[in-house]
Amino acid sequence: MPAHRGHGYTHEVLAAGTSLLAAQNVPRIRAATDVGNAPMAAAFALAGYVNFERQINMTWP
């Protein structure tokens, strides 16, 4: 929702989810976003996630 953007909620939710999974000894935590979603990609980077792959999905009309 546009009214909620820029308040840092993404960072809080991402940190909480990552901590919860790490506490359960999950061996690999992955996350994904659209290539054009720069704010989410920045949130992943800030949380310590590493960009290891890009995927492009193409559809035929």
Overview of the structural elements:
The chain is mainly alpha-helical and 61 residues long. It has one domain (2-46). The chain has 2 helices and no strands. The model has no long low-confidence stretch (mean pLDDT 89).
Short description:
The chain is mostly helical. The protein is 39% helix and 0% strand.
Count of domains: 1
> What is the strand content?
under 5%
- The radius of gyration over CA amounts to 14 Å
Cα separation of the termini: 29 Å
Shape: globular
The secondary structure category is mainly alpha
Number of β-strand runs: 0
Q: What percentage of residues falls in helices of 4 or more residues?
A: 25-40%
Q: Could you spell the SSE succession in H and E letters?
A: HH
Q: Uncertain regions: pLDDT < 50 for 5+ in a row?
A: none
State mean pLDDT (0 to 100 scale). 89
**Helical stretch tally:** 2
- How would a textbook summarize the main sheet? none
Set out the fold topology:
Layout: H1 9-23, H2 38-46
Which terms summarize this structure?
2 helices; globular; single chain; mainly alpha
